[in-house]
Amino acid sequence: MLYYSLNHQSPKVNFAEAAVKGQAPDKGLYFPEYIPTLPKGFIENIKTYSKEAIGFTIMQPYVGENIDKNELQRIVTETINFKFPLVRITENIASLELFHGPTLAFKDVGARFMSRCLGYFNRNNKKEVTVLVATSGDTGGAVANGFLGVEGVNVVILYPSKKVSPVQELQLTTLGKNITALEVNGTFDDCQAMVKQAFADTDLNNKLSLTSANSINVARWLPQQLYYFFAYQQWQQNEAPIICVPSGNFGNICAGIVAHISGLPVKHFIAACNANDVVPNYLQTEQYTPKPAVATISNAMDVGNPSNFIRIMQLFNNQFNALKNKLSSVSIDDATTKTTIETVYKNYQYILDPHGAVAYKALEDYLKNDVGQRPTSASGFILETAHPVKFPETVEEVIHQKIAIPESVQYLFNLEKKSITMQPKFEDLKEWLMRR
Ligand SMILES: *Cc1c(COP(=O)(O)O)cnc(C)c1O
User: Fold this and answer.
1) Cα(124) to centroid of ligand 1, in Å?
2) Integer Cα distance of 121 and 124 in angstroms
């Protein structure tokens, strides 16, 4: 398998090079030359496979000869060594809980796979790689945890001071070793701008091997397909599911669409957005108009120009009507998100996080219309992308009670926070990186 740049100005590369580079030299996103077809009988027999076998079967064609088969099996097995339960909330809505990983967010899957791939590709390399990443909360924790202890890789995470929740901050700042947290006296946008400038800076690139760890990287994007298959293993209905994904940069839903094109049965996809409604507007008007992100309570989706949307267009050969037939997108505001958390808790005792709530509302509305047209058994599931305890301010205010801290993260509260504070100035970041 080779990967080409969606800007078409750079040579094709193999999986290893795409993963190490992140982005193509022409600034395009890497895209697989073709979408592999699932082996014959795979879907019919999916319930008989282990998750490890599914993971290997799905990832192998994308990785090709770049990783030895036994090593790839090890990497996949370590990546998915936690639960992915599909939990029923109502008669026709279930929740695929993707928050049982070490940092309680779905990003664990992509981050764990990518970090292990980079560790493997870097195994004989003397020069250290520096992963530089800005986070509004979830990405940083997943990347830090995924890369902890990986030889030859240093991770530097920029996060906005006082703007991440207590659990998120502990996940970023207590690991030590090859992970350093920079606490920026500014906003997420400041952090993002500093990182972007660093990637474009000649002095820094001459001194350090800089790489990014966001969902534009194929090694983080593609393994996100796996839990769509795990969900299908647990799906009990005859009719294929409608899948609703809370979306920001659209990497997660894009991976689901890849899985579907390779053969996974899915009736329809819904991309649920918060007030950042570039894609919902596009599907209405066929006009794609990026705008600056606005802040919401589902802040991991505060994205004004989703970087993976171009990949989704490519998956549908840039055919608007084909895209519209398979994908809907809606925007849900903060007030509705809170009401949804409240109602679902009251009626079903299920605690949604703000991102999951956006998806729940979008799916509920869609099913009402769908069922209205066809009084059959339309049903689907949401991707619950983070544990509610990561957003305690919002959720506890709405459900009027404390959320229990999962046992798996309680140890964090006994660890010491270590961060380096920094003003939101690129020069300060540069000076600090040059001194390392
Ligand atoms: C990152 C994130 C999202 C958005 O995922 P994309 O792949 O960027 O669309 C949704 N929910 C949570 C909790 C996240 O951390």
Assistant:
1) 33
2) 8
